[in-house]
Amino acid sequence: MHYPIGLLFDLLASSSALPWNITVHFKSFPEKDLLHCPSKDAIEAHFMSCVKEADALKHKSQVINEMQKKDHKQLWMGLQNDRFDQFWAINRKLMEYPAEENGFRYIPFRIYQTTTERPFIQKLFRPVAADGQLHTLGDLLKEVCPSAIAPEDGEKKNQVMIHGIEPMLETPLQWLSEHLSYPDNFLHISIIPQPAD
């Protein structure tokens, strides 16, 4: 329940056929593998905690702190009830930044790998370099997870997936954050072994 379904698909089943078959078990809950969801309120609290964390990275929490409780509720209800207009009316504010800043303060991202025990990698990373150049997805991976990138003369061993697609490493990170972030405002990046087909 604490990972978005699209991320789970990228990590666990992106090479399988669609529709994705899901088996639901009503006995013997795997407590050691999954967080047990005690209530809808717990899911809402987890979601809002992630949104607040992302806003702290992007705007020093200024945007979320200026919102009223009803705005937080509208954001959650829009997501819960699949009402994009209701959700976007609030979430749009979280995706904006002053033009003079050229982007967010830091990019809220998490990198997940199927080949490691570590749940995810998350570090501070600015969307714009000190010289004013936009950082790319490749720049992020070189700094945070260099094993994900194939050497220039080597064979590609991994796929980098976001929302079921493999973006080009030259894609500006700011653009990815604005357009491919999940509803929690994080850019969830999956690194999976290159399929052998």
Report on this structure.
The chain folds into two domains: 58 residues, Autophagy protein Apg5, helix rich domain (Serum Albumin, Chain A, Domain 1); 96 residues, Phosphatidylinositol 3-kinase Catalytic Subunit, Chain A, domain 1 (Ubiquitin-like (UB roll), Roll), CATH 3.10.20. The protein contains seven helices and three strands, in the order αααααβαβαβ. It has 197 residues and is mainly α. It is 37% helix and 8% strand.
- Number of separate helices: 7
Instruction: Give the tally of structural domains.
Output: 2
Beta-strand level of the residues, as a percent range? 5-15%
Strand line-up in the sheet with most strands: 1-3-2
The parts where pLDDT drops under 50 for at least 5 residues are none
Protein name: Autophagy protein 5
Membrane topology: Peripheral membrane protein
Organism: Ursus maritimus (Polar bear)
GO molecular function, one term: Atg8-family ligase activity
